[in-house]
Fold this sequence. Notes:
The protein has seven helices and no strands. It is an all-alpha fold. It has one domain (14-153). α2 packs across α4, α2 packs across α5 (104-113) and α3 (55-69) crosses α4.
Amino acid sequence: MTNTQHEPRLFADEAAIRRVGEGLIARTLPREDWTHEAHLAACAWIVRMRPDIAPERDLPAIIAAYNEAVGGVNDDAQGYHETITQCFIRAVRLHLARAGQADLPTLVNGLLAAPEGQRDWPLGFYSRALLFSVAARRGWVEPDLAPLPTVMEA
Length: 154
């Protein structure tokens, strides 16, 4: 599925990406800067530049803590969403595996233009009802429409 209703906000340089990643971790990124694009850029930066952070394991707590630090709530209706986060970590890893060793802005901006960088990418694998369920928000749920691709398939 491709979201044609939204032009992605691209990143000018590596410093802009690093600012988002470091701001997420430090919980200093302004809330209005925590966009879909920022989520993907921060994840790509973490995968590429922070081998001390295991995204699948560590991003849930990092994002939930960030949300609370900027006045958000993580509950059954808003804030951190486990299944969407894990899907997009997979999307980032797929894109990075395909894209090779390009510089970070090229990788991130390419991801934002790629199918797996689109906001609705998980809906190719999940029904809307399942993806936006409380169970999917609170924990990982397997897709009900199609299996998610793996890095080995990329």
